[in-house]
Amino acid sequence: MNENSNPRPYTPGPNLRRAAFTFTGLGILLFLAAGTMRWAGAWVLLLEITIGGLITEAWLAKHDPGLLAERRTSRGQAGWDRIITTIMPLLWLTWLPLMALDAVRYQTSFVPGWLQCAGAVMIAASFYIVYRTYRENSYAAPVVKIQRERGHAAVTTGPYAYVRHPIYASGLLTYVGAPLLLGSWYGLAIVPVMAALLGLRALMEERMLTAELDGYAEYLARVRYRLVPMVW
User: At 85, phi and psi to the nearest 5?
Assistant: First the structure.
């Protein structure tokens, strides 16, 4: 973990503005498609994403400002990764309204309350995995690249002792948890497509890191699973 000082002092204002923009933008997508704001699952989802994001950024600002700065840039991103990271947000922009139409406007799905609660727990768990990952890996940039200027090295501790891509594993938890929380079986049916994109990115990232990062090939030989222990 890198606790070097941030070249710019941390102020919560920009983070709050980004959080407000995310909250408002996702809220518009969900509530416009649903035709109502009386949707408890959507409010819980928005609060979890917003509060989780704010807490994560505040923690990074205090404990690893170098990683926080790195996560605010796409400098050095591989071309193939730029394609994948363009597709994934576009999927979200269609996925959220689809779930609103399914669960609320047309009520074509019925998800039991206990499963909706389980979905909320999955999303909270995903933020905890992100925190544990950031605590171990100061090179966890949002884009795939080798951070030579920061002394990039293979990380094998914490969540990395169980899966090779804990951030992607946390994303998979969110992909499953969100449609359960929102009450949409149709939303859940889209998850394999999103999981496949995560899997493709993991495979491409491993290929690049094996070729360019010292010690990564040895790490792959020790840790078998990419996203889900005992599965893949």
Answer: -75, -5
Report d(CA 13, CA 17) in Å as an integer: 6
pLDDT above 80: residue 120: yes
Which DSSP state fits 232? -
Say if residues 204 and 144 touch (Cβ distance below 8 Å): yes
The answer to whether the beta carbons of residues 129 and 166 sit under 8 Å apart is: yes
Helix (H) or strand (E) holding 209: helix 185-212
Note the pTM of the prediction, 2 decimals. 0.90
Give the confidence band of 146 by pLDDT, cuts at 50, 70, 90.
confident
DSSP output for 63-112: H-HHHHHHTT--TT--HHHHHHHHHHHHHHHHHHHHHHIIIIIS------
Q: Is the dihedral of CA 32, 34, 40, 45 positive or negative?
A: negative
User: If you average pLDDT over residues 145-163, what whole number do you get?
Assistant: 90
CA-to-CA distance for 157 and 161, rounded, in angstroms?
A: 5
